[in-house]
Design goal:
- The structure is a homodimer of 402-residue chains.
- Chain A is α/β, with parallel strands linked by helices.
- In chain A, 39% of the residues lie in helices and 14% in strands.
- Chain A has eleven helices and 15 strands.
- In chain A, the strands form four sheets. In chain A, strands 2-10-9-8-7-3-4 form a seven-stranded mixed β-sheet, sandwiched between helices. A four-stranded antiparallel β-sheet of chain A has the order 11-12-15-14, covered by helices on one side.
- The radius of gyration of chain A is 22 Å and the shape is globular.
- At the A-B interface, helix 1, helix 3, helix 7, helix 8 and helix 9 of A face helix 1, helix 3, helix 7, helix 8 and helix 9 of B.
- Chains A, B: Residues 38-390 form the Aminotransferase class I/classII large domain.
- Chains A, B: This is PLP-dependent aminotransferase family protein.
- Chains A, B: Belongs to the class-I pyridoxal-phosphate-dependent aminotransferase family.
- Chains A, B: One of its GO terms (biological process) is alpha-amino acid metabolic process.
Chain lengths: 402, 402
């Protein structure tokens, strides 16, 4: 029997229920600068399958078992080693929780710490997924102005003091300090030290989202906020999605045990997908390092292609970031340009997708004249074509008038 | 630098923050009747890897892409076909959301519908995972008395009326109507019709958790509550975990679109693990049906082994369920027995694990003289040994005195 849906759920929704999400698949452009896709050609598919086969032969029976709630222990050991080697973070595997991408650990942390009305401080433009989670928990999100080195420390301090003067609780600072999404900059050492100093002085912890740290094309790594702190005031999350494949959905977090245990209790489901964890573990222990070098090589060329195309097709009045790594270029059009209003039309007519800046605005409204362009998915030739079409569309729509 | 953890998160936890969960791995018994493990020997490992290899060869590039938020479309098509064929549920693939096991859809539904203090009606003893999620959202959970056919309709109606008389909102009825976990019974047609009639008369929707429906060893399927209703008052969840492997963590839900869209918005992360979805889809379309027959054959023998062993080793004063399917036997010891207090000792000395009934109690406290025994994991010989040891331990501890 088919449901005739004569019953309405409208009166039953929780006060905090999320706004309805559209069902069905959003249209993607051929020139898809809208999402965070790495290069499909570099996906290590054969290696992942081989890793899985190997792991199943050795441990297959364990697929039957609801694994350790924190996630497949050998992969947590791998993560612990990686954190120590790459980020000077020294924790045991039991201080790590594997999650469904990095978004699940972030959800767990927000759920654990945030009451409605609590203040969260973020970069003025920051990853939309986290903003949405924060909104679902009715946080009072306050964006802090940034320059090309990240949050302005004076502005951050003023924001903390302001919130407290209003009698509000500032629960944490959320930052993507390396190859920031969407703005592209990387906080240098001095800015990180300043942020950590503020966190310590005002007792406001930091949620450090390091999802892009491995995607470095030039320059040198900067120490993690976690390592610079050393007092337990930093909660750290990162992910394999950008360096293996988003479809794997494997991320992780580490934080002081006091926080970790409550976050773990807030985790829905049991262990993160063991099938994927097997494959990632075997692959990572053998080959991740050289794989990262390969993909970064590809990504560097794509970034350069996009920068060159922007230079060629957009003129005065338009500026953009020049990130040393990551997946995005953050483009600023003249003040009065409205990239929100023309987005669907550009997708329809030029087959070009982008994300308007408003999606990343902490205040939910700023950034109509900004767009985030991802160079991860298309080939350099497609990037060139797509940017040309995008510029033509912007010009046609009067976005570039001075 | 290592964290010296001089910072305390205690003052920052949200009012609703979950109680801390223990880190590290709980000890498992050799005779592990404590968790819901299917038989490890029947895991279709080679077939899963082959399915994955095939899918990757055909669609590997798509692993790069954050897939459809509702989950890999071909697998949703498969689920839609299965629901139509097996449960008389006729929905389109776009009416389905794939999740991280069935626990994620349940979490999404609870998050969407439940404000603190809202009443949820459940069987008096029911799946602990869902109870924990309900508690995290501070629901007022009220257990309804059951017999061997499920919730007593008069008691269910009285519970609805009572809650409303108190001025409370009854948000939904949660039921596991087939091979109920832990009690083992299956609601026959008349009881399902009575529950649906109450749902329609009082406008209280039902969350139907059908996770065990495929694990049938004898008897015939009973129509789903969803199919019996037809007015949109039933939200339906089920899972592949019990019929392929828990480590796959793939479940699904369907519900009227009004509810579905809000539940989707409450889903953390993007699409459920595509890697696993690929493998499950290829495997399921080819072989799931015959696989289920194979595993049910194995499970039937294990169930029979456990029933025989209970008969042999436990005497008067002890009763137990005789389920037609599923994974559990629900054992009742004399009233004064306290299976909670001896659980760790029995695990230590006899290497036997079980779950005391209190874990499943809607009221959180009842059921000290009950235990749930899973026959899914151990071999029939191990089951025989384990039950013998368990009975000996119970006798030694004075649990069986009249």
């Amino acid at each position: 029997m088919s449901a005739n849906n004569s019953f309405s759920y409208e009166q039953l929704f929780a006060r905090n229920a999320a706004e309805p999400a559209p069902l069905g698949m959003p249209r993607r452009g051929r020139y898809d600068f809208a999402v965070a896709y790495p290069d499909p050609e570099t996906l290590p598919l054969d290696e992942l399958v081989e890793g899985l086969r190997q792991a199943l032969a050795e441990e297959g029976r364990d697929l039957a078992i609801y694994h350790h709630r924190q996630g497949y222990p050998p992969l947590r050991e791998y993560v612990a080693n990686k954190l120590a080697r790459d980020r000077d973070i020294h924790v045991s595997p039991d201080d790590i929780i594997l999650g469904d991408g990095s978004s699940q650990p972030i959800h767990m942390i927000v759920e654990t710490l945030v009451d409605p009305g609590d203040v969260l401080l973020t970069e003025d433009f920051v990853y939309s997924g986290t903003l949405n989670t924060m909104r679902r928990f009715r946080a009072d999100i306050r964006g802090v102005p940034c320059d090309e080195q990240g949050m302005l420390p004076d502005a951050l301090e003023a924001a903390i003091r302001q919130a407290r003067a209003e009698g509000k609780r500032v629960k944490f600072i959320y930052t993507v300090p390396t190859f920031q999404n969407p703005q592209g900059w990387t906080m240098p050492l001095e800015r990180r030290q300043a942020m950590v100093e503020l966190a310590q002085r005002y007792d406001v912890p930091i949620l450090e989202d390091d999802c892009y740290v491995d995607l470095r094309y030039e320059g040198s790594d900067v120490p993690s906020l976690y390592a610079l702190d050393g007092t337990g005031r930093v909660m750290y999350v990162a992910s394999f999605s950008k360096i293996i494949a988003p479809g794997m959905r494997l991320g992780y977090m580490t934080a002081p045990r006091e926080l970790l245990q409550r976050a773990l209790a807030a985790k829905s489901g049991g262990a993160v997908n063991t099938f994927a964890a097997f494959a990632v573990h075997r692959f990572a222990t053998g080959q991740l390092h050289s794989h990262i070098e390969v993909i970064n090589d590809v990504q560097r060329r794509k970034r350069d292609a996009m920068l060159a195309a922007l230079e060629e097709h957009f003129g005065d009045g338009v500026t953009w970031s020049r990130p040393q790594g990551g997946l995005y270029i953050w483009v600023r059009l003249p003040e009065q340009a409205d990239l929100v209003s023309i987005r669907d039309r550009v997708l329809e007519t030029e087959d070009v997708g982008y994300v308007p800046g408003t999606a990343f605005a902490a205040d939910g409204v700023s950034g109509r004249n900004y767009m985030r362009l991802c160079f991860g998915y298309n080939t350099p030739e497609e990037i060139q074509e797509g940017i040309a079409r995008l510029a033509a569309a912007c010009r046609r729509e009067g976005m570039l008038a001075d």
